[in-house]
UniProtKB/TrEMBL annotation:
PROSITE patterns for the chain: ABC_TRANSPORTER_1 (PS00211), ABC_TRANSPORTER_2 (PS50893)
UniProt domain ABC transporter: residue ranges: 3-235
CDD domains: ABC_Iron-Siderophores_B12_Hemin
Name of the protein this chain belongs to: Iron complex transport system ATP-binding protein
Annotated coiled-coil segments of the chain: none
Keywords, in A-Z order: ATP-binding, Cell membrane, Membrane, Nucleotide-binding
InterPro entries: AAA+_ATPase, ABC_transporter-like_ATP-bd, ABC_transporter-like_CS, P-loop_NTPase
Gene Ontology MF annotations: ATP binding; ATP hydrolysis activity
Native source species: Chitinimonas taiwanensis DSM 18899
SUPFAM superfamilies: P-loop containing nucleoside triphosphate hydrolases (SSF52540)
Gene3D superfamilies registered for this protein in UniProt: P-loop containing nucleotide triphosphate hydrolases (3.40.50.300)
Pfam families linked to this entry: ABC_tran (PF00005)
Length: 255
């Protein structure tokens, strides 16, 4: 499985938001971070790949054009965690997961098994019978991610999956994403602002700015002080802890 983007462009509101994006294939089995400043086009790329925003050019998963997939097949193959989370509803968490799986074509029995297994794997069983409209923002994000993961799609598109999560849940969720992606040999693209999570969990980082790819490669190579200054307008650097972990240090604005 791999995801190929070739000359992908998106116009929104009369502006070119993604400008002829071509990338070496995104591999299966590991996480790719999509980083870049606010307004760079990260969510737009994720929405285009999920079929929510029209695009020019080509995007194909294992040689199959995403644009040509019928909606039901696309729902089966592509799992999306949007930045704007589902609003509360009267559904229970368990029913919400079941609904996502059924919409992606699972039988009732498959949906029940996959929902229970994913809630158990993520430690979310205590929330199973809670109504969606009684959850906190972070709990809703966990449940929406659980729904995307439970379907075990070939392409996972996660838009800031950790933005509402506390430290424990950030690691729980990213580790679960890594497990599912490795087991399923799925392609995973995660829009992230937290460079330390990109360093910890992602094999590759794509830096978007102004709708174009400014850098692409292993995080420790890509996240150089000069790139951070150019793309974000900040002074920052990567340091290594005494245990060898790469850590991003945000210093200050340039004087
Ligand atoms: N529905 C829309 N209509 C018109 N323009 C839009 C729409 N959604 C986004 N844009 C524009 O597209 C550009 C890219 O937005 P996008 O949300 O993809 O950026 P992003 O990199 O995800 O930003 P952030 O980090 O702030 O979430 C921005 O200039 C934004 O104003």
């Amino acid at each position: 499985m791999s995801l190929q983007l070739d000359n992908l462009s998106v116009r929104r509101g009369g502006q070119t938001v993604l400008d002829g994006l071509s990338l070496p294939p995104l591999p299966a089995g590991s996480l790719t971070a999509l980083i870049g400043p606010n307004g760079a086009g990260k969510s737009t790329l994720i929405h285009a790949l999920a079929g929510l925003v029209p695009f020019q050019g080509e995007a194909s998963l294992q040689g199959v054009s995403l644009r040509q997939l019928p909606p039901a097949e696309r729902a089966r193959r592509v799992g999306l965690l949007p930045q704007a989370l589902p609003q509360g509803s009267g559904l229970s968490v368990y029913e919400f997961l079941l609904g996502g799986l059924r919409a992606a074509g699972a039988s009732a029995r498959e949906a029940e098994q996959a929902s229970e297994a994913m809630l158990a794997e993520l430690g979310l069983l205590p929330l199973a019978l809670k109504r969606m409209d009684t959850l906190s923002g972070g709990q809703r994000q966990m449940v929406a991610l659980a729904q995307a993961l439970a379907r075990r799609p070939g392409l996972l598109l996660l838009d800031e999956p950790n933005s509402a999560l506390d430290l424990h849940w950030q690691l729980t969720m990213l580790d679960a994403v890594q497990r599912v992606v490795a087991e399923r040999q799925a392609v995973a693209l995660l829009a992230l602002h937290d460079l330390n999570l990109a360093l910890r969990s992602c094999a590759r980082v794509i830096v978007l700015a102004g709708g174009r790819c400014r850098a692409d490669g292993p995080p420790q190579q890509v996240l150089s002080p000069s790139l951070l200054a150019e793309v974000y307008g900040v002074l920052g650097r990567i340091e290594h802890s005494s245990r060898g972990e790469a850590l991003f240090v945000l210093e200050r604005l340039p004087s």
